[in-house]
Design brief:
This protein starts with a strand and ends in a 28-residue tail after the last helix. The chain has six domains: about 1-145, BirA Bifunctional Protein, domain 2 (2-Layer Sandwich), CATH 3.30.930; about 175-260, no CATH class; about 265-350, no CATH class; about 355-440, no CATH class; about 465-565, no CATH class; about 575-735, no CATH class. A hairpin with a 6-residue loop joins strand 4 (about 95-100) and strand 5. The protein is flat. The longest helix has about 40 residues, at about 420-460. It has a five-stranded antiparallel sheet, with helices on both faces. Strands 6-7-8 form a three-stranded antiparallel sheet. Strands 13-9-14 form a three-stranded mixed sheet. Helix 16 packs across helix 19, helix 26 (about 665-675) runs antiparallel to helix 27 and helix 27 (about 675-685) packs across helix 28 (about 695-715). The protein has 30 helices and 20 strands. This is MobA/VirD2-like nuclease domain-containing protein. It comes from Flagellimonas nanhaiensis.
């Protein structure tokens, strides 16, 4: 089932359409004088007058619930589905009507209501799209309906229904719906800024866009079909195709995108990318330009030819959603007539091997190979600068040769039998390696100085209570990836760099205990910098996994003094709460759901005056943080908020009573919501730790692959050595802290996953 919501400023036109459609059936009215005795005219007046209590442009809601082709519900059941939908979405107490239409092959109902309640305020529409999807999922399961997509997806528009034999257009046949589908899809995919641009985008789908200017100055639009027989079929006015596709509605969209403050930034970025591309080449054959831009800059473009097959311009389909003609990107450059762009069919596309840009590309190939290779090693053994010094080209060449960038450069280096690029890499390798190692060494020394200075600051400000544990200095060093030897601080994995520092009470530990993952060290450093910052107003957002640092470093965080521990818990709670809101999207249908989903994790909400705060059962000290304004308003819209908040105590007591009130229970829940089912299965089977999640969320993950992993883990027999390594991997934070993650073998717990090499700084030490 798929639900769609449109908001409108007026309602009579919608009601005329809904009630006036041939074959329509009124299934019932809600919150009017009678469920079945209300007349359409009385309902229209009721809805009109209630909606007029607010001047919002979204004061009326037109909703459709659509079943997949071939799926059937009788009127009584479809009416129940519609009422459940309205209850879950917050319209349960609003006046609304449910009308069934039979004008398409998909069974569907229309629901018309108002977003203005009796007091004249708007229903909170926060996250309405995501709540709509969550409500769909809930009703599909409840009524046994076919599932709908859980998220918006980018799709290619269908180039079907080619109209070679079509002579006329019937507004009631599939043509109008085809136009709706294509035009709406184009407006979702692209940030269109004018009718000319829309016409160009619609042309491949055989849709003709025609505009006309009325005496009043209002621009109208109509759509027709190009039947490829030298003439067009009759046109359908835009508002007939769909009210949102009329001329005035489209002009509003075009003006919004044309006035965007980001538009100059996108043009400047594209100008730089085009300049970089032309600097790399001696010559680019016109026909090769789309491939060059796609392979080198990941830019999609379309060539536009004038008379005599001369290149007149080219269109760039930018990742931002905008489409630009090359001529509008920069007035300083005539891109189609660039001296390095050739229309000569006998010419070939050649890279300029003597250019500075080619030299930069060679350096980029080697550096990226070092980064990627280092990520696959045991970083507890050496620093990146040491790794670079100890590797030769033959160690990296297989990795370099497999990259798309290598293939691109090799392809356009001309007829050199594939020898030019390897030869260039060989000639440049030693110099690039030496330069890279020097740069990384300087950066490592700077990082060591910063961390040593941070230790001094932490100890001076008494962040930790050292009266009961004289070994805190050791735990502090270890938490920052450092060690102490004979009055000097060095990195855990290398003694190459050192900074003098006098510390007391350092007790050595074996290497296994001393290892902490890179990502965790970086996050701990960020926490300590935040706590000791001289400027308390300086914003410093933590990663949500900072909430779990007390699991990994229990001695260190256990000795943190109350004032600093409270500050840490507030910041980490704020970061974690924000991340959890994203996980709620699949299941949150209403403000009540929002609260209950958090309650199941061990979080609760408190009303303090006009502010609502979130807190948790995991804090060492009682702390809470206020919700953001829009979230606060969203929860405050609950009429029975006080009752819902009172119910939270039962949920919290239940978690504690069942022995699930530990941070490790939340950790396995977090791993589950990240869909790292291998690690989850191990923790649940071998350590017996149960997650804190809502039953609906648990069921989703069980069906999504967790059940199979649990069965597999239960049947697997592992050696003591493997089990020990697995246990350590459970608390390895590096993957969580370093970008996108694709789950690998569960035994690979110490491997840091950092896939965005443009953000490599501070990742390796």
């Amino acid at each position: 089932m798929i639900g769609r919501i449109l908001y409108r400023e007026t309602v009579h036109g919608v009601l005329n359409y809904v009630f006036g459609k041939n074959g329509s059936t009124i299934l019932g009215f809600q919150n009017t004088i009678s469920e079945f005795g209300t007349t359409p005219k009385f309902f229209a007046n009721t809805l009109h007058f209630q909606g007029q209590r607010h001047d919002s442009a979204s004061r009326y809601a037109h909703i459709t619930l659509n079943l997949p082709h071939g799926e059937h519900l009788d009127d009584k059941t479809f009416y129940k589905v519609a009422k459940d939908y309205m209850d879950e979405m917050g319209y349960g107490e609003q006046p609304y009507v449910v009308v069934r239409h039979s004008d398409t092959i998909h069974e569907h109902v229309h629901l018309v209501s108002t977003t203005v309640n009796e007091s004249g305020t708007l229903i909170n529409l926060r996250n309405d799209y995501h709540r709509n999807v969550a409500t769909q999922r809930f009703l599909e399961k409840k009524y046994g309906l076919s599932p709908s997509p859980g998220t918006k997806v980018q799709r290619d528009l269908p180039k079907y229904r080619l109209p070679e034999l079509q002579l006329s257009v019937d507004e009631n046949n599939g043509t109008k719906f085809y136009m709706q589908d294509v035009i709406n899809g184009l407006l979702q995919k692209y940030k269109v800024r004018g009718f000319e641009e829309l016409a160009r985008l619609a042309k491949p789908y055989h849709i003709v866009v025609r505009t006309m200017t009325h005496a009043s100055g209002r621009v109208g639009v109509a759509y027709g079909i190009d039947n490829q027989k030298q003439y067009n079929t009759q046109f359908i006015n835009g508002y007939v195709v769909h009210p949102e596709l009329s001329g005035p509605k489209l002009r509003t969209i075009f003006e919004k995108y044309s006035k965007s403050k980001l538009l100059p930034m996108h043009k400047k970025r594209l100008e730089k990318q085009l300049l970089t591309t032309f600097k790399l080449f001696n010559n680019i054959k016109t026909e090769d330009l789309p491939d060059v831009l796609k392979s080198y800059q990941n830019i999609d473009c379309q060539l536009l030819y004038g008379r005599n097959r001369q290149l007149a311009d080219f269109i760039i389909y930018d990742k931002s959603g905008y489409t630009f003609k090359a001529s509008e990107i920069s007035l300083q450059h005539d891109w189609p007539n660039n001296s390095r762009l050739s229309g000569d069919q006998s010419s070939e596309t050649h890279i300029d091997i003597g250019s500075n840009q080619f030299s930069l590309e060679i350096k980029k190939l080697i550096k990226n190979a070092f980064y990627k290779s280092y990520l696959g090693t045991n970083k507890s053994k050496e620093l990146l600068s040491e790794f670079v010094v100890n590797r030769n080209l033959k160690d990296l060449l297989p990795l370099i040769a497999r990259t798309e960038h290598y293939s691109f450069l090799n392809h356009y280096l001309g007829a050199n039998n594939g020898k030019m690029l390897p030869k260039t890499l060989k000639n440049r390798f030693d110099d690039i390696r030496a330069e890279f190692a020097k740069t990384e060494s300087k950066r490592e020394i700077k990082k060591l100085e910063i961390r040593t200075g941070l230790i001094k600051k932490v100890l001076e400000k008494s962040v930790f209570d050292i009266t009961n544990d004289t070994n805190i200095a050791f735990y502090l060093l270890r938490g920052l990836g450092l060690k102490y030897h004979h009055g000097n601080v060095t990195f855990l994995n290398s003694g190459t760099h050192s900074i003098p520092l006098t510390l007391q009470g350092i007790i050595p530990s074996n290497s296994d205990e001393a290892y902490i993952s890179t990502g965790s060290i970086n996050q701990n450093e960020k926490v300590l910098e935040m706590l000791t910052a001289d400027d308390s107003t300086k914003a410093m957002d933590l990663n949500p996994t900072s909430f779990f640092l007390p699991i990994l470093m229990p001695e260190l965080y256990g000795s943190m003094t109350k004032t600093f521990r409270t500050g840490y818990e507030k910041k980490s709670l704020k970061a974690f709460h924000k991340a959890m809101e994203g996980f709620n999207i699949l299941f949150e249908k209403s403000p009540t759901d929002y609260i209950r989903l958090f309650n199941a994790r061990g979080f609760f909400f408190e009303a303090r005056g006009d502010k609502i705060h979130v807190a948790s059962i995991y804090s060492k000290y009682p702390v809470s943080v206020p919700l953001r304004k829009n979230t606060n308003e969203y929860l405050s819209s609950l009429k029975n908020l006080d009752d819902v908040l009172k119910e939270q105590r039962t949920a919290m007591d239940s978690i504690k009573k069942q022995g699930r009130g530990q941070l490790k229970n939340l950790w396995v829940s977090y791993l589950m919501e990240k869909q790292w089912y291998g690690k989850v299965a191990y923790i649940m089977v071998y350590e017996g730790i149960q997650p804190n999640l809502h039953p609906e969320t648990m069921e989703y993950h069980m069906e999504n692959g967790l059940r199979e992993k649990l069965i597999e883990m239960s049947n697997r027999k592992v050696s003591a050595e493997q089990a020990s390594l697995l246990r350590k991997s459970v608390y390895a934070f590096s993957s969580l802290l370093g970008g996108d993650y694709k789950e690998e073998d569960v035994f690979n717990g110490f491997k840091d996953e950092f896939t965005d090499y443009s953000k490599y700084k501070s990742l390796f030490i």
